[in-house]
Design brief:
single chain, 218 residues, mainly alpha
């Protein structure tokens, strides 16, 4: 576990610092103050970018990346898939049974303030905490970072995960606390499965799917 963290410190350490910074803001300011401050900053370019980039935190994106990873190592695909499925179940349990009354920004601010929202965006109303897209974004880009040997890739994937997560706040689909919790959950689940499948001694999962088929034919 410590070896995994040490190898990926370029991704993990900056993430932890950003997470702590976000938590400090949550302690100092209300979620309404933070959201309204962020909501002030918008532009046509950001509207377009965040409208589409937010989909990189969807389950479909995770499934597509998991399929591609089969051609690198089956183990990588299993790690991403199990992380996404497990965290998805946890997210739904938290949303519907632990924090069912937490409303999304569009409902929270309905009688308090007028939000800037992008036209034609389907704004969700309920089950705000935690952000499922943030969970998935950090699992997808965290997996890519963990399997890469290049430090530049780890930095780029961290930035990508942060941007996708932030898009949920920009689009007023979530509050800052929702995406921080989602990112933390995604990272914890991913680290567990990545560690587990590295100590698990099963040879076939360390092959690509094409090599696995070739071995099976022999």
């Amino acid at each position: 576990m410590l070896k995994l963290i040490s190898k990926n410190k370029t991704f993990i350490i900056p993430y932890v610092l950003i997470l702590i910074t976000g938590l400090i803001f949550i302690l100092l300011y209300s979620k309404a103050e933070i959201h309204l401050f962020i909501n002030r900053f918008h532009s046509p370019l950001f509207d377009t970018v965040f409208r589409y980039i937010t989909h990189l935190g969807s389950g479909i994106a995770a499934a597509v990346i998991a399929i591609f990873l089969l051609f690198a190592k089956i183990r990588y695909s299993i790690i991403l898939s199990l992380s996404a499925i497990t965290s998805g179940i946890i997210v739904q349990l938290l949303k519907r049974f632990v924090f069912p009354g937490l409303e999304r920004p569009v409902i929270f601010f309905r009688d308090l303030a007028e939000l800037y929202v992008i036209q034609d965006i389907n704004l969700h109303a309920h089950y705000s905490f935690p952000s499922g897209h943030s969970v998935t974004a950090f699992i997808i880009f965290g997996t890519i970072a963990f399997i890469s040997e290049w430090e530049s890739v780890k930095v780029i994937t961290l930035l990508a995960a942060i941007i996708v997560s932030f898009s949920r706040v920009y689009l007023s689909q979530h509050f800052l606390g929702d995406i921080l919790a989602g990112s933390a959950l995604g990272m914890l689940v991913l680290i567990f499965f990545y560690w587990y499948f590295h100590i698990l001694k099963i040879n076939w999962i360390n092959q690509s799917i094409q090599n696995s088929f070739r071995s099976a034919r022999k």
